[in-house]
Input
Amino acid sequence: MPINPLKISSYTLTNALGSGNQASLSALQTEQTGLKPNDFDGCDLKTYIGRVTGVEDMVFPESLSDFDCRNNRLALLSLQQDDFTEKVIAARKKYSADRIGVFLGTSTSGILQTEWAFSQIDENDSLPKEFHYLQTHNVFSLADFVQHYFNLNGVAHVVSTACSSSAKVFASAYRHIQAGFCDAAIVGGVDSLCLTTLYGFNSLQLVSEQKCTPWGKDRLGINIGEGAGFAILEKSNDQPDEIQLKGYGESSDAYHMSTPHPEGRGAAQAMQAALDSAGVKRADVDYINLHGTATQSNDSAEDCAVTKIFGSEIFASSTKGWTGHTLGAAGITEVIFGCMAIENSFIPVNLNTSIIDPDTQANIVMKQTNKPVKNFISNSFGFGGSNCSLLIGRKD
Amino acid sequence: MGIKVYLNSISLVAPGLYGWKQSLSVLSGKAPYIKTELPKLVPAILPANERRRTTPVIKLALHAAEVCIGENLELAQEYATVFASSDGDLGIMDKICRALNMPEHPVSPTNFHNSVHNAPAGYWAIAGKAQYSSNSLSGADETFAVGMIEAATYAAIENKKVLFVSYDYPAPASIDSVRHFDSPFAVAMCLSAEKQNNSLAELEIEMAQSNEYSLCDSAELEQLRLDNPAARSLPLLQMLAKNQTGSVIIPHLQSTCLSISINVG
Output
């Protein structure tokens, strides 16, 4: 039976393209990447990164200073765009502080702060006193910060399932609303640049020296980006122009810790489950925002999965060429890109890729296409074989 | 208004509380709590090569999970999973942060893929061929309450069987000064929306109206409850061990509380 759709009543997005929705939309429409040669402090890897400017110079509120770290700064910067803070305050007035859930995703939380603390470790193996581990690096710190920032005291959790984290929060929020634990939810995710992911993905030989080329013939791997995005989910009030969460599918590859199932078994299962839970026919999906990391293994597995479920006609593209792979923030980032595609009737090109992998079966969008989009699927897949596909669209 | 789910099995792994049946007399107050060291945990579900690649934290979570499933581990395939941990693998964080502060930043690829919060969930899915949804989450000190809501909500709304595991493991010396647990603690529960032949109790879960939560019956168990986020489950486990109908109040986020009513009828 289809789920009861939820209204996505507002959203905000911050990443290497800039702070706030307009920066992302303009860059998508003018095909301007946010990727730049790596200049992240303390990292000498030859690669491109998707870095948000201005995070270092932000002023963090004194009352929340224990939460101060790059990850929560990025969260705050994002919450301050697009009147999002005002919209949450209005929702709090409407629903009350204990009836708004907070479901956010991250993969590495504020580990950069712990990396710094270890650079200061003393001869007794003690970390510096100024290090607030629980408010910065603990996995929950992101939602704890957001609950404190908005004075919310309802249900909340942080999902950390690597790169599917901020997609899966939509499913968590749906279930909590459906079960009556909250009436509305703030969903989203934040992941910030750190040495752990830069050198960690490099140790797995998955980092590209060039700008990433999803589905490219000679693709070399990922570029790491950072980003933050948030959305408010509420029960539908059946307005014709509503953009809704219509369905979701979650699955496990049960195959390998850091490599997807070669035929995309779990990915296909997640997309099929999203269709089933939405009660939407394949033919009524206009666009797939691919996970499309630009690793050899992801793109070929996802190509199999997409064509298995949708055939090879449906428009599909990866937007990692704009932002890099924002890991735990990829889900929310790409959901919001899809919402922009609906509202502005265009399908983003598969940026940076000039020569497509000859084994490709899917219809990878190589030229920006103006076309109405009613429904799209957003794919997010992570280490540990964690898969999530979301089906989002205009109200039927 | 709350949601109702059935509790079909429990496993418990903590010093002096090793195994659910073995812990019943201590939990029900018939025997004193004596803190004895845990044996070395060797999850049977993991193939030998994977055992070598996994950490004590992953082994703790997987051991609790597999004991909860029972002797026939093929049943693992029937469950969606929720793995709840406040802090994940602090031993791995220590190793990675030390490596990053050395010349050449020699992060081990195995440590890196084990560093994800969903590492136990990933190993579980692979070893148990479990292809359903899996969530891995944190709610800091209130992780047990938060995980319980997610697991019960999943079972009730998706109408699927859920294996819920809550675990946390002591930090290495460096991180211990900022995040201290004396003891490892893991508890796992199989939940379902429909009553099963083996159902132990019906649980009704809702936000509590009061912010006074239940304590453990003895000072020793109360100390354990406060030590580890997963041990916040102890008042619930004590009531279940006594096979009593009643309710417990568990601390939830931002000074709120969760009520869990137990019906053993």
Observations:
- The two ends of chain A are 16 Å apart (CA to CA).
- Chain A has a mean pLDDT of 97.
